[in-house]
Write a sequence for this structure.
């Protein structure tokens, strides 16, 4: 990569710099659109949210209240439950939602025929609008009676059935299953692409050294895709910590005894059900700080190579 | 056009387009609602949605007729969904300042509307000169929309809850349709019998999500003689023997008798859909829930009857009353407020017109003859006119509502910050309905802590 040429400071606007400005006008013009969009729909709301988190509006009058909103939100009995639930979901989603797509990608990569069809099949759920997919899960798969799809299968297998979203212990795993089914298509394609970049020579050499399937995965596939794995893991942590639509649709909100309340849902509850937009903003800022830490790791990883 | 030129033009067009659209977004309307011809325009929400065809036709016909009678007023109708006030949408509109000029709200919304700073004090404008039946409107309903001696809304509907039951399922279970349960132990017995006839039927159904669980808990605790808040409204009062009894009754029916069906976490539409499908024996609700069951969820009027709310040892000690009204957005002109009041007076508060046009409603799939709303105070001329018209045009079996109508229980209003409290109480309701090991004391204590915190923060 070559370093950019140093720009000389010139008094007045020389024909050269005028030409330079003219040449770059198109680029700047395109940039203005993006910058304006970001400023209006991302940066301004973020700054406004930060300001709101230190204010309180009552009777149309807004006052500065310092850290009051933060203290109040931390005092909410649901605060720690929401964080616990969110981390639990993130952890489960990382184990299931990370391992399953990787495994599926490895299996797909081994197929000689019908690769394209299988890829489309795996990617299909991603094309379904998330709300529709979740309603399908809610009314068909997770119906707590024996008529529910999952319960019917479990009954057929002579296994104990579950109340799914109505059971405080099954709420989170059920949401992870739905979420993984909905989202794994994208991850599988990324893994597949990275798997296909691994040189066949490495596998050949491993095979000659007597490595079986598992050893080849452990010693060749995983080290060769390490960076992609780490990147996706970070992206997934940041995405899953914003868990919202799953509790909203599958659990009708908080679920049974707060078992589905996530941090993002608690923000929504304070803001839109409890007439507490300022408290919601404070929780939003807290969440931002936590997510920023994970995002920093992601950025570090993504710029490493 | 060469490629660089083409790019330049495209970029400039993009910037210009974006600039224009941003200008359009940020342009604050300084419209005072009147045009050059001297016409006053007001926007009004809660226009029925397309799926409510007859109601929508009626609304549009009312607008046309009203504008004909008042050629200087233009009504712009806005539909905000079937429920008119879905709490999150309502909050978003309030926070964003995007409500219509005259906007619909629940009686429980007054505090939130005032906090948002979006409401207008309409005290100077409301009198029998602007709303001809104003003096007949029940003073208790006006009070609900009054704060600090100032009126902020006009009541247009009210309700109180009773025990809604399916006569067909009662008969199937060998129960007497003319003698529905009067106490919660009797409800429990009846629910058991109904559920025994068909595994897919819930003998008694109850809400536990989307704020509706807390809403019904409130009515249930009133029936026990308990209250949600202390007298001064500063502390939660539902962690009481009455509150515990409410949850115990539900837990007993759900897990002791298995008479409440397996699907829980129900919200408004879920329960009514099941009821319309003949899968619910009893639930608590206002008489107009039968209207929703029929017109929105395709049930049958003949199936449904309403009785007074049961209590623990006799009929309920009280029942929850609530309702709806219209607020006026701040900064409206005098002419706009008067136009809005004129419209509400015409469509909502005149016997024989708008919502009380029973002659028009009679042949429609829309009930006439329900015991509510009761907007006008007893003994007033407006009430007499409205009741006479209602009786003359009844199209529902009125005898199905006679038990409810003849035994009026004391009506208790909703607590302050009702929607926020209901959201918290949902958790206690879902607890006993989905967890056989739920600890009632813990559920109530947690909810109490949350409500106390909410009240402390709001005061």
């Amino acid at each position: 990569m070559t370093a950019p040429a140093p720009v000389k400071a010139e008094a007045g606007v020389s024909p050269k710099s005028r030409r330079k400005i003219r040449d770059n006008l198109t680029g700047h013009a395109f940039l203005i659109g993006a910058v304006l969009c970001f400023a209006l729909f991302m940066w301004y709301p973020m700054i406004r949210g930060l300001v709101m988190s230190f204010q309180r509006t009552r009777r149309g009058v807004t006052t500065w209240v310092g850290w009051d909103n933060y203290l109040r939100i931390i005092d909410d009995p649901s605060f720690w439950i929401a964080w616990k639930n969110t981390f639990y979901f993130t952890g489960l989603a990382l184990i299931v939602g990370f391992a399953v797509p990787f495994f599926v990608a490895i299996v797909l990569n081994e197929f000689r025929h019908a690769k394209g069809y299988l890829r489309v099949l795996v990617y299909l759920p991603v094309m379904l609008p998330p709300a529709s997919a979740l309603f399908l899960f809610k009314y068909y798969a997770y119906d707590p009676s024996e008529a529910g799809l999952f319960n019917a299968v479990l009954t057929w297998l002579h296994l104990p059935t579950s109340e799914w979203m109505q059971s405080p212990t099954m709420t989170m795993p059920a949401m992870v299953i739905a979420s993984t089914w909905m989202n794994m298509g994208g991850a599988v394609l990324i893994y597949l692409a990275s798997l296909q970049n691994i040189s066949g020579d490495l596998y050949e050499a491993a095979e000659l050294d007597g490595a079986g399937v598992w050893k080849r995965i452990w010693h060749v596939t995983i080290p060769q895709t390490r960076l992609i794995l780490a990147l996706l893991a970070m992206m997934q942590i940041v995405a899953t910590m914003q868990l919202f639509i799953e509790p909203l649709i599958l659990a009708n909100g908080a679920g049974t005894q707060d078992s589905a309340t996530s941090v993002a849902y608690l923000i929504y509850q304070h803001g839109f059900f409890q007439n507490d937009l300022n408290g919601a903003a404070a929780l939003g800022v807290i969440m931002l700080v936590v997510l920023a830490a994970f995002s920093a790791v992601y950025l570090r990883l993504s710029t490493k190579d | 056009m060469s490629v660089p030129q083409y790019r330049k033009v495209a970029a400039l067009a993009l910037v210009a387009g974006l600039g224009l659209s941003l200008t359009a977004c940020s342009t604050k309307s300084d419209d005072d609602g009147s045009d050059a011809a001297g016409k006053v325009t007001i926007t009004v929400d809660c226009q029925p949605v397309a799926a409510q065809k007859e109601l929508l036709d009626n609304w549009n016909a009312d607008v046309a007729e009203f504008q004909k009678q008042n050629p200087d007023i233009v009504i712009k109708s806005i539909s905000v969904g079937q429920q008119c006030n879905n709490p999150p949408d309502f909050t978003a509109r309030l926070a964003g300042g995007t409500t219509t000029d005259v906007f619909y709200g629940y009686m429980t919304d007054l505090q939130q509307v005032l906090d948002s700073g979006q409401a207008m004090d309409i005290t100077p404008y409301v009198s029998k000169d602007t709303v001809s039946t104003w003096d007949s409107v029940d003073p208790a309903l006006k009070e609900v929309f009054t704060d600090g001696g100032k009126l902020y809304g006009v009541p247009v509907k009210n309700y109180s809850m009773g025990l809604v039951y399916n006569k067909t399922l009662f008969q199937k279970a060998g129960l007497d349709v003319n003698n529905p349960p009067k106490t919660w132990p009797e409800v429990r017995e009846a629910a058991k019998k109904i559920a025994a006839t068909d595994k897919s039927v819930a003998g008694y159904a109850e809400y536990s999500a989307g704020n509706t669980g807390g809403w019904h808990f409130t009515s249930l605790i009133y029936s026990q003689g308990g209250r949600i808040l202390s007298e001064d409204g500063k502390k939660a009062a539902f962690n009481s023997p009455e509150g515990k009894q409410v949850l115990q009754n539900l837990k007993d029916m759900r897990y002791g008798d298995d008479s409440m069906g397996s699907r829980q976490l129900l919200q408004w539409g879920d329960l009514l859909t099941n009821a319309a499908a003949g899968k619910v024996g009893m639930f608590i609700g206002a008489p107009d829930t039968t209207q929703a069951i029929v017109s929105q969820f395709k049930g049958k009027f003949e199936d449904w009857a309403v009785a007074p709310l049961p209590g623990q040892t006799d009929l309920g000690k009280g029942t929850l009353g609530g309702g709806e009204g219209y607020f006026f957005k701040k900064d409206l002109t005098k002419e706009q407020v008067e136009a809005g009041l004129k419209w509400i007076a015409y469509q909502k508060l005149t016997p024989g017109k708008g919502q009380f046009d029973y002659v028009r409603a009679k042949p429609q799939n829309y009930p006439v003859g329900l015991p509510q709303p009761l907007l006008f105070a007893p003994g007033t001329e407006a009430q007499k006119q409205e009741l006479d018209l209602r009786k003359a045009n009844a199209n529902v079996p009125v005898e199905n509502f006679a038990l409810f109508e003849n035994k009026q229980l004391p009506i208790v209003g909703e607590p302050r910050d009702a929607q926020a409290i209901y959201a918290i109480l949902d958790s206690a309701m879902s607890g006993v309905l989905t967890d056989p090991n739920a600890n009632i004391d813990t559920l109530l204590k947690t909810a109490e802590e949350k409500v106390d915190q909410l009240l402390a923060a709001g005061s």
User: Anything to note?
Assistant: Chain A has two domains: 15-69, 71-302.
